[in-house]
Write a structure and sequence with these properties.
Layout (H helix, E strand, L loop, with lengths): L20 H10 L14 E2 L11 H6 L11 H13 L4 E5 L2 H12 L5 E4 L4 H9 L3 E4 L20 H10 L7 E4 L12 H13 L4 E4 L3 H11 L8 H10 L3 E5 L10 E5 L2 H14 L10 H13 L3 H21 L11 E5 H4 L9 H13 L1 E2 L1 E3 L1 H4 L14 E5 L7 H16 L7 E5 L10 E4 L5
Parallel strand pairs: 1-10, 3-4, 5-6, 6-7
Antiparallel strand pairs: 2-8, 7-8, 9-12, 11-12, 13-14
Helix pairs in contact: 1-14, 3-11, 4-5, 6-7, 8-9, 12-16, 14-16
Amino acid sequence: MKTIIEPFRIKTVEPIRLSSVEERRALLRDACYNPFLLKSDDVIIDLLTDSGTSAMSAAQWSVLMAGDESYAGSPSYSRFKAAVQELMPFKHIIPTHQGRAAENILFSLIGGAGKFIPSNTHFDTTRSNVEASGATACDLVIEEGQDPACTHPFKGNMDVARLGRFLQEHEGHVPCVMTTITNNAGGGQPVSLENIAATAELAHRFNLPFFIDGCRFAENAYFIKLREAGYADRSVVDIVREMFSHADGMTMSAKKDAFANIGGWLALEDDTLAERARTRLIQIEGFPTYGGLAGRDLEAIAQGLTEIVDEDYLAYRLRTCEYIVERLIEQGVPVVLPAGGHAVFVDARAWLPHISPLQYPGQAVVAGLYELGGIRACEIGTVMFGRKTDGSEEAAPMDLVRLAMPRRVYTQSHADYIVEVFDELNQVKERLSGFRIYDEPPTLRHFTSKFERLAKAH
């Protein structure tokens, strides 16, 4: 096989400051062992998130100059709306400054105390926005999606049978059904079109709207093309349109699969709900034709949506994660299989069995990667999901470490460097110790919590 190369040329570069191990140990200690509290200048390879970290294209930079900053009725909004509807033909397209703002608006309108909102898996801000409304966020991913080593091709799928029982049990208290594509918290795993259609059909049978959190829609569509029977000869654009044809609305962070550094939207079919959403938008984000964004941001999103569905790019994108996963498997590092679309997920609980889940093995891996190699990653496990709304704590279903790959930012040599750092960390993994949290906020604690290292294992 030929190497799948980066399908772009590098036109502008940003220097990376190379620090020493001793310096990074001190920096991490000063940041209370929380990678979110590190300065980005002190990071060599930043895999904390793929949100808003993309490299924009020359075409995107050029359209910034066409941005019209009129308060109302900007032509930039018209171009943005047309680009969204080219792929997702919803009636109402409501811009927001990013995806969590779209979630906030939606759940403030349809959520509330005593309500239950099912999804395959809610991610952190989605869950927080559901819970802030007083509702309960419920995860109903298939059983295979909770087994990191399972190679099911669509581990992000909703468990439709469980969903049916759930809707019967909570009938009258469920305002909508959601699906996240791809399933970020479960390892960046895709959802099949068959499952999207079945989930939508079940929601509609109960007279409920079906919403898609679509921030990685293009990656999900390419997985469908590669893995789902009957779609190999279909274009990604056609698959995207079919995915959203089953939905009654969507939330979107354009900071992922739109190559934008900021932005998002809420799309709806229902006229009454859309009117209420626009009123809420004006209160907290801005006028409906800019929604908290500059006109130039709307232009960048519109252009990015034409670039993300390029199949040469998507082949390279998925191969990047697959390559790192293959190399880590060779080293004996347990990873989530199959490789996801936007990130590599390491099974920290399996890799560090000497650290209990309530001592945060994922945080131990995150700290080790930074100290040894200057790599910043994100724990997705008991730190992120272990604290319950009543203040109690229990182990999350999995303790993962996410290495989220920014789009069009790093090269093959960066990927090889990541693998080399893992090899070095693998040699000393038995000496890694757990952590305890000594200061944390009541919600979304992973962003700002402060940790202290427990006594090292011998």
